[in-house]
Specification:
Blueprint: H1 4-9, H2 12-17, E1 50-62, E2 67-78, E3 84-89, E4 93-99, E5 107-109, E6 118-123, E7 133-140, E8 148-151, E9 163-166, E10 187-196, E11 200-203, E12 206-207, E13 212-215, E14 218-229, E15 236-239, E16 242-245, E17 250-254, H3 256-265, H4 269-280, E18 288-292, E19 301-302, E20 307-310, H5 323-330, E21 338-340, H6 346-365, H7 367-388, H8 411-428, H9 430-443, E22 447-449, H10 451-463, H11 467-473, H12 475-480, H13 497-509, H14 515-520, H15 523-532, H16 539-549, H17 557-569, H18 576-585, H19 589-601, H20 606-617, H21 623-633
Parallel strand pairs: 1-10, 17-18, 18-20, 21-22
Antiparallel strand pairs: 1-2, 2-7, 3-6, 4-7, 5-6, 8-9, 9-15, 10-14, 11-15, 12-14, 13-14, 16-17, 19-20
Helix pairs in contact: 4-5, 4-6, 5-6, 6-7, 6-8, 7-8, 8-9, 9-10, 13-15, 15-17, 17-19, 18-20, 19-20, 19-21
The chain binds ligand BES and zinc ion.
């Protein structure tokens, strides 16, 4: 029931093309970039000496011990004279390493670094020529593996079955997969995963037929990804989930109690894929499915190929947050098809994606909504630059050496990237820019890239040595410089004219928008209004706002978050129970950390409240979210998590 319809609906040719499990010889091996910009300081791998080209996982999920265990068979390509391969690990428990024929291979596990984990160095057997060699690692993950979140039934929507999901980006997959965990080392992969019934396993690759009964109440699920991907994109989830079709190649997985609402919210998906293809060419991954995860998922969305992972908090009942889907879908080009070689080029994934997201939004929902999103990005860039200081190196799009690979989520990559590309589009014209971007994706499909390569391509295809155009574009200022270059394309002031006037009226003399007017606003407009309000407000003002606009009952979590944030910042007691409920229910770090921070920064009022709420909510949070909040409220971890 669950798998047949997927295959049945695909045109035969497409299905065959992505059926997976290609013979070794037909898999394309992606190049390794050797430029200075491509260097990844967060891997132990030395890919120019020996690199992994393919990963085959055979793993069992154990919901009692919170571990995965089994084997990873790696295809390794080594240069002449190289007799070892270095892999990344973070807490993996290795019980043995052999070659493809079962002969034991020597290996050592190096000293562990808190961020990078530890290297595994495996001696390679003698070989002839440049043939691929197999290395088979028998291992288990630790119960606290950072990429994996094991949820108890109470942490799911249905409340009856456990759930597991992985989150690889940025450098977490080394806690469950022993491979070279670097975005510039692309690998094809396949996997066979067993799980207890009635759980269904899904992965970021193409499902290989019906699950197989393997006895003892367990089933095996098989997947393959024949396009090489950066290893942070290998992802899995397992739970009591069902699938619903959205279009000929798109669908959604969710727990049964969430499936109807998810399907309704995601109804525009197929139109978005069509729009994206019309802009940048074919969607090259076969299926586009999504999975709606339990609320502790620490992000809004994650672009795992063929299977975007989504927070359930995006469901608003009116499709107002589906910009999130446009964003994750856009990564099927920027990020997944062409990927930054090093974490320092975060904007090549996230900035290009945010720009592409706005183009999809424009095509599907119209210019006004796209203009509004651009105004929001521009605003948030201005705020971020003002806060950091315009000459702060963190505001450069190519981030300074040593920047945490998780910090690609900062404004410099998303918002500055969007404003940069919009500015270039404005200067060279949309037609020429679209043609350029299409060739960028075609020329580097399934390959790594750097900032330098992007700028070189722009100069080759668009600037053609025209010095006047070069001066107007200010390319290097954008990518390597700090702050906002002076040629930045300002947003259309009309985008939020009505909303901004309403916010100004409230600030001036307390005039509130009419409830009818407020309800007619889009999610983006409501958010803009709340963001334009003064930072400091009195309790009577907050009560008045809430009563007039029904903020605490708003079904859009983005709006609800802004309300609770304003309330906490202003020490508004009546909102504390709802803040506690929200923080207990939601684990999305974008909401969670700012709320704790707002409480914490009030000092004596909010600190005890924050610690009280955190004490009961922390066990339900993902390790990423815990890491952020621990730092805000000064939490000391008592024992390694399990
Ligand atoms: N790839 C990111 C999430 C990410 C970034 C995870 C860096 C780990 C490290 C994803 O595509 C993303 O940008 N998510 C945003 C969506 C938003 C910009 C629409 C999020 O989760 O809020
Ligand atoms: Zn993204």
């Amino acid at each position: 029931m669950r798998f047949a319809p997927l295959a049945a609906l695909l045109p035969l040719a497409l299905f065959t093309a992505c059926k997976g499990d290609l013979p070794e010889t037909e898999r394309v091996i992606a190049p390794i970039l050797t430029s200075e910009q491509a260097f990844d300081e967060f891997t132990y791998a030395r890919p120019t000496e020996a690199r992994v080209t393919h990963v085959a996982l055979d793993l069992a999920l154990d919901f009692d011990s919170h571990t995965v265990a089994g084997t990873a068979t790696l295809d390794v390509q080594a240069a002449d004279g190289v007799d070892e391969v270095v892999l990344d690990s973070n807490g993996l428990v290795i019980s043995g390493v052999t070659d493809g024929a079962g002969q034991a291979l020597d290996f050592t596990v190096g000293e562990s670094d808190p961020e990078k984990g530890e290297p595994i160095t495996v001696s390679l057997p003698a070989r002839t020529g440049d043939e691929l060699q197999q290395v088979v690692i028998t291992y288990a993950s630790e119960p606290g593996a950072e990429a994996l979140q094991w949820l108890s039934p109470e942490q799911t929507a249905g409340g009856e079955h456990p759930f597991l999901f992985s989150q690889g980006q940025a450098i977490l997959n080394r806690s469950w997969i022993p491979t070279q965990d670097s975005p510039g080392i692309r690998q094809t992969w396949e996997a066979r995963i067993t799980a207890p019934e009635p759980l269904t396993v899904v992965m970021s690759g193409i499902s290989q037929g019906e699950p197989e009964d393997v006895g003892e109440g367990r089933r095996a699920f098989s997947f393959a990804m024949d396009n090489s991907v950066p290893p942070y994109l290998i992802a899995m989830a397992a739970g009591n989930i069902e699938h619903a079709e959205l279009g000929p190649r798109s669908g959604v997985w969710a727990e049964p109690v969430t499936l109807a609402a998810a399907t309704e919210e995601l109804a525009d998906t197929e139109a978005m894929i069509d729009a994206a293809e019309a802009i940048y060419g074919p969607y090259r991954w076969g299926r586009y499915d999504m999975i709606v995860l339990p609320p502790s998922f620490p992000y809004g969305g994650m672009e795992n190929p063929t299977l975007t992972f989504l927070t359930p908090t995006f469901i608003a009942g009116d499709r107002s947050n589906t910009g999130l889907v446009a964003h994750e879908l856009a990564h099927s080009w920027s990020g997944n098809l062409v990927t930054y070689a090093s974490w320092r080029d975060g904007w090549l994934n996230e900035g290009v994606t945010s720009y592409f997201e706005s183009r999809i939004t424009e095509a599907v929902f119209g210019e006004k909504r796209a203009e509004q999103e651009y105004a929001l990005s521009y605003n948030s860039l201005e705020t971020a630059v003002a806060e950091a200081g315009a000459d702060n190196p963190v505001t450069a799009m190519r981030t300074p050496e040593g920047t945490s690979p998780f910090d690609t989520i900062g404004e410099a990559s998303y918002d500055k990237g969007t404003v940069f590309l919009r500015t270039v589009e404005h200067i060279v014209g949309r037609e020429a820019f679209d043609e350029f971007m299409r060739s960028w994706f075609d020329d580097h499909a399934f390959q790594p890239a750097t900032s330098e390569m992007f700028l070189a391509a722009l100069r080759e295809h668009l600037v053609h040595g025209d010095q006047e155009l070069e001066d107007r574009l200010m390319l290097d200022d954008w990518v390597y410089g700090t702050g906002i270059p002076e040629n930045a394309l300002a947003p259309d002031p009309a985008a939020f004219a009505e909303v901004d006037a309403a916010a100004a009226a409230f600030v001036d003399d307390g005039t509130l928008p009419l409830a009818t007017e407020w309800r007619g606003w889009t999610g983006a407009e409501q958010q803009r209004f709340l963001r334009e309000l003064p930072e400091v407000m009195t309790a009577p003002q907050l009560t008045q706002l809430n009563e007039a606009l029904g903020l605490s009952g708003n079904g859009n979590n983005e709006v609800l978050f802004l309300w609770l944030h304003a309330a906490m910042r202003n020490q508004y007691d009546p909102a504390v129970p709802q803040a506690a409920e929200f923080l207990h229910r939601v684990g999305r770090n974008k909401f969670v950390s700012p709320l704790y921070r707002a409480m914490w920064e009030t000092g004596g009022w909010g600190r005890p409240i924050a610690r009280r709420i955190y004490a009961t909510s922390r066990p339900g949070y993902h390790s990423m979210t815990r890491g952020s909040v621990d730092a805000i409220v000064g939490w000391e971890e008592e024992a390694p998590n399990g």
